[in-house]
Design goal:
single chain; Rossmann fold; 6 helices
């Protein structure tokens, strides 16, 4: 059984509810705790102890998890408004948030198939919404493709580094409000070698 209440030296506990904060970098957590989450719709790619915290803070939490053990652990402990989905199929995993027909205020990428999740996440993110990409360019986890870097770093963003761990980074990007009513339909390689996002209006 996975113990979601087990805390290591790099994790922090929220004194307001006794739950363990998501395992993002401390500077990223310092930013997130300034947000008013009570009316926010949140989606997580990758569920765990973070799901318990998000569910306690936001209006509704949705998520998808690759590991059956982690999904079972979360479902046994979560006591809030949460809808979680488990799958090991890449296409189902990446597109799982589309089934809800929701524009999410916050989408977290902290699980499997991270590069593949980015275009779908941006499609389903509300304008002005936040994309949280944990373990950004962290060699111990995975390095993002050049395509993903070009897409994400083109958005307004901050990269929050963990003191004492040069590779630990949490990226938080904002979807610009001027692209509210769009779908991301494709990512194409342009003639100049740069990647671009193809948009179509609703």
């Amino acid at each position: 059984m996975i113990d979601l209440n087990s805390q290591n030296e790099w994790q922090f506990r929220d004194e307001t509810n006794g739950l363990i904060f998501p395992w993002y970098t401390k500077p990223a957590l310092d930013e997130i705790v300034t947000w008013d989450l009570k009316d926010k719709m949140v989606f997580e790619y990758g569920c765990g102890a973070s799901s318990l915290w998000w569910a306690a803070k936001c209006k509704e939490l949705y998520g998808v998890e690759y590991s059956k053990d982690y999904l079972l652990a979360v479902c046994q402990q979560i006591n809030y408004n949460a809808t979680l989905h488990g799958t090991q199929d890449e296409v189902d995993y990446v597109n799982s948030l589309r089934q809800y027909n929701i524009r999410f205020d916050i989408i977290i990428i902290d699980g499997s198939f991270r590069d593949e999740c980015v275009p779908v996440a941006l499609e389903c993110l509300e304008s002005g919404g936040k994309l949280i990409f944990d373990n950004w360019m962290q060699p111990e986890v995975t390095l993002q493709s050049q395509e993903t870097q070009d897409i994400v770093l083109a958005l307004p963003h901050n990269i929050y580094k963990q003191s004492g761990h040069p590779h630990w980074q949490t990226l938080i990007a904002t979807k610009p409000r001027e692209i509210n009513d769009i779908n991301i339909t494709e990512v194409s390689l342009l003639q100049n070698g740069q990647y671009g996002i193809g948009y179509t209006a609703h």
